[in-house]
């Protein structure tokens, strides 16, 4: 019986069926490789300039967010220190090919003075060229609006909001309340020694003397961060991740 079955089988037909199946499988493999090669050519050759531009121009940055500084009240709840929101013009020197031309073009827009420019150049020489340097602080609403209209002309230049302390009683309580001032080299060394330098990445000022200095840790808060994608103009393309800052509410004395 096994011999009879073997004689009945058509070996040539089975061989042809196998060849057809192998040919179809081989053809499918060739088609798949062809699709991959065409797609690879499209990405590597035809779209090369597009993706190279995106790769070169876009970058991921960690932007520190300054916390709201705590307020100071007396025992009757009367504020001795208040926070007000102001705006400043920031410049990243590494993104500016001609600094002199930039300053000349910005002068009529934000009303730069010789003192503004001199202070900016001094700060620029003491700061990494890849970090933002303040060109002008306390911008008016008109100056902010004028720059916003012309911002596309100035890659590497941005307007940033910040908070500044206001003392309702002025010099009358200055010896008690103290003041906040620009972080200097001595402050940086002390912060680095105490492992607190990173917490001041978004701050320009620190409490000095009086209550502002004594309760600095309690008043400062914790710096937050934004992980963002920026284009070659320094503009934020999209927000990837955010850790909000933790501000201090108030200190009563």
Automatic annotation (TrEMBL):
The keyword Transmembrane helix applies. GO terms for cellular component: plasma membrane. Its main location: membrane. Its EC number is 2.4.1.129. The keyword Transmembrane applies. Pfam families: PBP_dimer. It is a single-pass membrane protein. The lineage of its organism: Bacteria, Pseudomonadati, Pseudomonadota, Gammaproteobacteria, Enterobacterales. PANTHER family: PEPTIDOGLYCAN D,D-TRANSPEPTIDASE, PEPTIDOGLYCAN D,D-TRANSPEPTIDASE MRDA. GO terms for molecular function: glycosyltransferase activity; penicillin binding; peptidoglycan L,D-transpeptidase activity. It is found in: Cell membrane; Membrane. The chain crosses the membrane at residues 21-43. It comes from Klebsiella pneumoniae. One of its GO terms (biological process) is cell wall organization. This is Cell elongation, e phase peptidoglycan synthetase penicillin-binding protein 2. Keywords: Carboxypeptidase, Cell membrane, Cell shape, Cell wall biogenesis/degradation, Glycosyltransferase, Hydrolase, Membrane, Peptidoglycan synthesis, Protease, Transferase, Transmembrane, Transmembrane helix. Residues 65-238 form the Penicillin-binding protein dimerisation domain.
């Amino acid at each position: 019986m096994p011999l009879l079955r073997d004689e009945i089988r058509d070996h040539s037909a089975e061989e042809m069926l196998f060849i057809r199946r192998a040919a179809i499988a081989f053809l499918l493999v060739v088609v798949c490789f062809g699709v991959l090669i065409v797609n690879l050519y499209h990405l590597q050759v035809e779209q090369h300039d597009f993706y190279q531009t995106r790769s070169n121009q876009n970058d991921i940055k960690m932007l520190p967010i300054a916390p709201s500084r705590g307020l100071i009240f007396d025992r009757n709840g009367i504020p001795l220190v208040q926070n007000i929101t102001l705006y400043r013009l920031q410049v990243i020197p590494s993104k500016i090919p001609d600094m002199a031309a930039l300053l000349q073009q910005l002068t009529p827009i934000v009303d730069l003075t010789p003192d503004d420019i001199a202070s900016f150049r001094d700060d620029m020489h003491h700061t990494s060229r890849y970090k933002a340097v303040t060109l002008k602080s306390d911008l008016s609403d008109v100056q902010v609006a004028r720059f916003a209209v012309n911002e596309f002309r100035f890659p590497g230049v941005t307007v940033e909001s910040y908070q500044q302390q206001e003392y309702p009683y002025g010099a009358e309580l200055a010896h008690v309340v103290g003041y906040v001032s620009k972080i200097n080299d001595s402050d940086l060394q002390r912060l680095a020694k105490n492992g607190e330098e990173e917490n001041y990445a978004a701050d320009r000022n620190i409490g000095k003397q009086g209550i502002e200095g004594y309760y600095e840790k309690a008043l400062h808060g914790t710096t937050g961060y934004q992980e963002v994608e920026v284009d070659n103009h320094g503009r934020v393309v999209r927000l990837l991740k955010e850790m909000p800052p933790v501000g201090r509410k108030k200190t009563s004395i």
